[in-house]
Amino acid sequence: MLEIKDLRVSFHTYSGEVQAVRGVDLTVPDDDITAIVGESGCGKSMTAQTVMRLHDMSITEIKSGEILLDGKDLLRLTEKEMQQIRGKEVGMIFQDPMTSLNPTMTVGAQITEVLLQHAPKDARGKSTLSKAQAMEQAVSLLREVKLPDPERRVRQYPHEFSGGQRQRIMIAIAMACHPKLLIADEPTTALDVTVQAQILELMRNLQTTHKASIIIITHDLGVVANFAKHVSVMYGGMIVESGTTLQIFQDPQHPYTHSLLRAIPRKGMDKAQELTVIEGTPPDLVKPPQGCPFADRCECAMRVCKDHLPPVYTHQAGHTCRCWLMDPDCPPELRNKERG
Amino acid sequence: MRGAVKLKKYLLGRVVVALVTVFIVITLTFVLMHLIPGTPFNTGNTNMDPDALAQLEANYGLDKPIFEQYLIYLNNLLHGNFGTSITYTNRSVTEIILRSFPVSLDLGLRAMIFGIIAGLLLGIEAALHHNKFIDRFSTVVAIVGISVPSFVLGTLLQLVLGLWFSGWVKTVFHTDFQLFPIARWESFRYTILPSFVLSLGSIASITRMMRSSMLDVMSQDYVKTARSKGISERAVTWRHEIRNALLPVVTIIGRMVGNLCTGSFVVENLFAIPGLGKYYVNSVTARDYTLTMGLTIFYAIFIVTSTLLVDIAYGFIDPRISLAGRKR
Amino acid sequence: MSIFSQKTVPVATKTEEKDFVKDFTPVPKDLEASGRIHRRSLTYWQGALLTLRRNHSAMIGLAFIIIVILIGIIGPILYPDYMKTNMLATLQAPSEKHWFGTDLLGRDTFTRLLWGTRTSLMIGFVAETINLVIGILYGGISGFVGGKTDVIMMRIIDVFVSIPQMIILILLQTVMSNGVPTLIFSLCVTGWTGLARMVRGQVMALRENEYVSASLVLGAGRWEILKRHLLPNAVGPILVNYTMSIPGAIGAEAFLSYIGLGIPVPAASWGNMLQEGANQFPGSLWLFFSPAILFGLFMLAFNLFGDGLRDALDPKMRR
């Protein structure tokens, strides 16, 4: 199980310190798919990369927090210990399959690299896995991710594959050592719609056969609805609402979640029902607002929202929301406005 | 298999351009040399006996119509005959090339090897320690090496190491031994200073190129992927970063050949090294037209061929090249 | 080793505050505030200028370039006698009368340096300005006309690029009379190819661009498109290319003169002054060092400024 507690991460740019992650709490149960949803720049990718500690150490700064993987705090491991986690216990898939594979190494070499790295070592510190064995495993991995003709293709270079195929290869690399957790950072954003569905299907199948858990990061609620079991909605560097997919889609509490849902097209949508856009832009995290980050764009904003950050309220079991509307003192008629 | 066809087409195109270039250089050189009024022996103010002059010109084939001379010259070139030198009487241009080219090649290779090693090391170290001391140091080396031409730095080194330093050695140790002789090409000692001076430009440009190429590669997604596999930092650096960063640097090694030739014009004159460059510059100052012509053509063939070879090598190193021409 | 920052974090969440009045009065959306950007948002040129101004080495380089250019313009007017020989005062060390000493023929080094600066700068600027014009025209025509013309024009460039520039320079010095016009001419024979390729690339990219087709559909004229789309995109790279090529041309002059093929004495240029200085080694060091230092620093300044300009005009280099 992965638990993130009060994670705060900043990175430094020319124009100042960007507080990209401002206190994220997240629990990812075993054998399950959890989605983190939000607009670009809301801190979701940063959160994911911090789990793997892949961020650029020279400009990022972890201010505080814990990331517990089965009780072990990843943020307190040494770099050497962290290398034992990466690829072996946590695998990762990136957004753009066109650039995430090394162009000058064969696909086989890139898969065997991770296998050989994490193969058990014998008494003399030599890997018990031979290169030929690793290559065989690579072929069967490619077969597992449904890449046709794996025996031949394993010797090819990335530029000889399509985007969808490359993402399959990335999945093969990430799943090679059967990690407990797979982090997929916008895995389908750069792909064609038809290919998207296939990749998601593949990830779901692997998740069930390997009993792994997946964190999927996306801005696409459509992906979430059919794929994830739990959803956390991020905005302005924090999680504003969190619950099961059913709870979020059927009984959303946060006005931001409402607006997101109104912005996706649905089957059988009335012509009169127009897709709405969320007006305005997200806050600049160089100087994040004191109060609720969504207050300036919110239909239901109140005075309290401007100056005070709302606490996390529990709506139902497993369904939490960071919004002043949830406050017991808040007049109930205001709460209904958002549904109008 | 489609890739192989494209690769063949790409190589063929490069070879054709190279051949055309060499042909144009030959023709251009020939035409330009014959635009000079009079002949090498008769610039208008000699008081030579007209009969002897005519005899001399006939010896060099200068009495024939220009187009015929051109065809003869082309034919001779095809047989490896670059003509006869005018100032070095009775020495053929081919002979001069054969004797002096190995010296230049020796000098050039030393400079190139040293330049590549030093440049790559500096560039990689600079990128790995971005914004640290070594990075700043290599930036200074690169900018000074690119800005200040080697003949200024070379002259300076001759003065400091060749004259002042050996003068100091003489007064302190009472010996005429010169660690860095500033003239001639004899033992290893003699090669140190000229090779270093000749390599300065290469060091600078390779350092700069390697540094920026490394920094570029280091920010690529696939490096992040490599790191996400849990492999050691050293493996990330060697297997993923340096390997990819080297690719664009290989292309400038082709260009380096030309720069080294140019550099050798100066360095060989500066250090009195009997290489091709020294003969070339001398032939121009002495108006030895056949020698200038022969050496120009030889240089052109040499530079064009080595650039071509590097380009072809590049096509084999980079698996993506077969797709579409050259990147960047 | 901990990866945490050492600083303590004062950003305690406001939720911890207990004693404040929760004011649930509704307020309207404040879209303007939502979009408020706390980093400066600048246009391309403003950003470039800002980046350049913050680059100290580039600014020092620019200041030095301007000073040297002024020296090259004004100096020779104040000190016209650069050819006056004085056999009674040859190879004199620097003194109050001759600031940088005198040469083998008793000519004043300081005066010659002023004139040499003028010669070298003139060659660099004139040659590269001509190259600029040729390059823009050639590349522009090749890109705009396209098709077969473009293919042929680019093949011609391929050939030009393969011919080593120094060989053309030396060859032309042999054939034509030595001097400034020959040097400028030979620098212009091959010097324009890089720029032509670049301009063509910009034009081609523009032709493919959707917004240009859109403007064409909307009835914008060719000139309008050139002005609105091509210039802003191409001016940056052209400027960088121009700046970087000038030290190249000046260096080529110095090189040729140094090996005795460029500007012949009694005219003065940085290259032939360097040569005369080196000939006097190990004596009369001022003859070598006065042009060497000025020339070296000028080349350094130009490269520093050029680097700064390139970084400033490349949005990717800015953070």
Briefly characterize the structure.
Chain B contains eleven helices and no strands. Chain B is an all-alpha fold and 328 residues long.
- Determine the mean pLDDT of chain A: 87
Oligomer designation = heterotrimer
- The N- and C-terminal alpha carbons of chain C lie at a distance of 29 Å
> Helical amount among residues of chain A, as a percent range?
25-40%
Count of runs of 4 or more consecutive helical residues of chain C: 12
Instruction: Output the number of helix runs of chain A.
Output: 12
Sheet of most strands of chain C: none
CATH superfamily of the domain at 105-317 in chain C: MetI-like
What gap, in angstroms, lies between the N and C termini of chain A?
A: 39 Å
CATH 2nd-level architecture of the domain at 105-317 in chain C: Orthogonal Bundle
Folded structure, characterized:
The complex is a heterotrimer of chains A (340), B (328) and C (319). Chain A has helices at 44-52, 79-85, 107-118, 131-144, 150-153, 163-175, 193-210, 221-227, 245-250, 255-262, 303-307, 332-337; strands spanning 2-13, 16-28, 33-37, 60-69, 72-73, 90-93, 181-185, 213-218, 230-235, 238-244, 313-316, 319-321. With 340 residues, chain A is of the alpha/beta class. In chain A, a hairpin with a 2-residue loop joins strand 1 (2-13) and strand 2. In chain A, helix 4 packs across helix 6 (163-175) and helix 6 (163-175) runs parallel beside helix 7 (193-210). The longest helix of chain B is centred in the last third of the chain and has 38 residues, at 233-270. The relative contact order of chain B is 0.14. In chain B, 76% of the residues lie in helices and 0% in strands. Helix content of chain C is 67%, strand content 0%. In chain C, helix 10 packs parallel to helix 11. Mean pLDDT of chain C is 81; it is low at 6-15. Classes of the chains: A alpha/beta (340), B mainly alpha (328), C mainly alpha (319). Chains in contact: A-B, A-C, B-C. Chains A and B meet through helix 2, helix 3 and helix 6 of A and helix 8 and helix 9 of B.
